[in-house]
Amino acid sequence: MFGPGGPTFRELAVQALSSVEHGYDLLARKFDHTPFRTPDHVLESVAKALAPLGPFEDGLDLCCGTGAGTQVLTALCRRSVTGVDFSAGMLDVARDGGRSAGAPGVAWVRGDARALPFTAAFDLVVSFGAFGHFLPRELPGLFGQVHSVLRPGGRFAFPVFAPPRPAHPGYWTLLGFDAVMRVRNALWRPPFVMYYRTFPLSTVQRELARTGFTVELRALPEFGRRADGSPRARLVTARRAGPRPAGGQPAAGRVNS
Fold first, then answer.
1. Sign of CA dihedral 153, 156, 159, 160
2. What domain range includes position 11?
3. What band does 249 get if pLDDT is binned at 50, 70 and 90?
4. Are residues 59 and 99 in the same domain?
5. In the chain, what is the straight-line distance between the N-terminal and C-terminal CA atoms, in Å?
6. Is residue 179 part of a domain?
7. Which residues have C-beta within 8 Å of that of residue 3, sequence separation ≥ 6?
8. Mean pLDDT in residue range 46-74
9. Which of 26, 69, 98, 180 has a 20 to 30 Å separation from 88 between CA atoms?
């Protein structure tokens, strides 16, 4: 499926009946040949929007997968870049794929975003396409973990796209996908948590603010606007309170790199 190099239908079915971690281990070698990999134009748009907020010293790609998002960090961070993911298979592909070429210093770390193995070591954390793997009740803990690994004045940034309206076929596609996943998880163990409609912007802003972040929204102009004038895509930037220390401190607390 998805063209040459992509997984077969059978491989996708086996993944869908596995746990999230094992499913991505199975898919890892073919992941970059699927539409699930964040497109380059999204990465480039985010990098462009973040550039005026720098310079940054140390960056973390949260739920990095095969490392596509590290392209953003290596262009923005002057000292080090870290990718963290709980799938050993995805990290192996990231290491083998040369994602670190030209970077000031890159580490790949196996770890769970719900219990990050770092101290306050970063002044920029980004994430792409991973939030569907977290249930709404997990967001406070997830955002708390990100807050804990940022230095004072550090930023947590990620793109959010406006959901399709009911008149658009995509609305029903996403609704149907989430419904199928809920049925699958009710009937089959282990669960495979992946939903497209459980990360509304209003909820995200509220939970980030409760965690202690100051939240800003920036339109990503490359994606245009909807008929009502609202942006099709926004960059969420959540800032931890406090001044950024001059020069930062060396990244610390890495394990399993």
1. negative
2. 1-37
3. low
4. yes
5. 33
6. no
7. 33
8. 94
9. 180
Q: Which CATH number is 96's domain given?
A: 3.40.50.150
Name the pairing type of β-strands 106-110 and 77-85: parallel
Mean pLDDT of the region 45-70? 94
Question: Does the model's pTM come out above 0.90?
Answer: no
| Number of domains observed in the structure of the chain | 2
Looking at residues 25-30, what average pLDDT do you find? 80
Angstrom distance (rounded) from CA 5 to CA 14: 17
d(CA 224, CA 119): 38
More confident residue, 179 or 18: 179
pLDDT tens-digit readout, 156-204: 999 999 988 888 888 888 888 889 888 988 888 888 888 888 888 999 9
- Sequential DSSP letters for the chain: --STTSPPHHHHHHHHTS-HHHHHHHHGGGGGGSTTSPPHHHHHHHHHHHGGG--EEEEEEET-TTSTTHHHHHHHEEEEEEEEES-HHHHHHHHHTTTTTT-S-EEEEE--TTS----S-EEEEEE-S-GGGS-GGGHHHHHHHHHHHEEEEEEEEEEEEPPPPTTSHHHHHHHHHHHHHHHHHHHSSS-----SSS--HHHHHHHHHHHTEEEEEEE-GGG-B-TTS-BSEEEEEEEESSPPPTT----------
